[in-house]
Design a protein that fits this description.
single chain; TIM Barrel; alpha/beta; PLC-like_Pdiesterase_TIM-brl; GP_PDE_dom
Length: 248
């Protein structure tokens, strides 16, 4: 496996170095520019568009962050980029636009959002764009299916799994209990073989993170670090942090 030291050299700014109170919104150009200026690696999220592209946005719906409502995947790129945000004059970026902005100034970690529905169109589009990007880039997902597809069809791309130990809360209620247990145990390892893990900081250490760091000698990043308690826990059990709300 290729040397991934670049992945853990600098703290990773969660959705960019954002501050909504100052009009710098998550996953927006100003947040990414601020992360670059601070020499932080960048984590971001991508959602599918109605016309088959990848848009940099966390939620499956527009409601929380924009002045409109409805699903992101029911709008074209042109439609999405015309929608104002609630707290900034920025507009959404496509993944290709983000690649042009970052241009390997700092490492980039892209989370492929998924609803665990077997749809792989977004994964294929991300892989297509990533193949032409010459910077330091890692792709990851909570869903093993995109990562298994990357292993099989784009093995040269750095891939990771985002995970936690409990999968508690309403967000995960749609998943069967057995699936949640398998996700926490990285039971999909044979099909995904992730190069790194991104693990919930409150759930560290876990059997999986200890195995990755000690036996497999692969990096573990933790999310999302927001306070001194999280920072201390991460320092003991992870190789780097994904952070927000402070300057790491």
């Amino acid at each position: 496996m290729a040397d991934l030291a670049w992945l853990t050299t600098r703290p990773v700014a969660h959705r960019g170095l954002h501050d909504a109170a100052k009009g710098v919104l998550e996953n927006c150009p100003q947040a990414f520019q601020a992360a670059i200026a601070g020499n932080y690696a960048i984590e971001c999220d991508v959602q599918p568009t109605a016309d088959g592209d990848a848009i940099v946005f966390h939620d499956p719906t527009l409601d929380r962050l924009t002045v409109q409502t409805g699903r992101v995947d029911q709008r074209s790129v042109a439609e999405l980029q015309a929608i104002p945000f609630k707290a900034t004059t920025d507009r959404m970026l496509t993944l290709s636009q983000l690649f042009a902005l970052v241009d390997d100034k700092v490492p980039l970690v892209v989370e492929i959002k998924s609803e665990f529905d077997g749809k792989l169109g977004l994964t294929k589009r991300v892989a297509e764009l990533a193949a032409d990007y010459r910077g330091r880039l890692a792709l990851m997902s909570f869903d093993p299916a995109p990562i298994a597809w990357l292993k099989a069809h784009a093995p040269g791309l750095v891939r990771g799994i985002v995970a936690e130990s409990a999968y508690a809360g309403a967000h995960w209620d749609r998943l069967p209990s057995a699936m949640k247990r398998d996700l926490a145990a990285i039971a999909h390892f044979d099909t995904t073989d992730p190069h790194f893990l991104s693990w919930r900081v409150a759930d560290m250490p876990s059997a999986a993170t200890v195995l990755y760091r000690s036996a497999l000698k692969r990096p573990v990043i933790c999310w999302t670090v927001r306070n001194d308690e999280d920072r201390a826990l991460a320092a003991r059990h992870a190789d780097q942090v994904t952070f927000e709300g402070y300057l790491a």
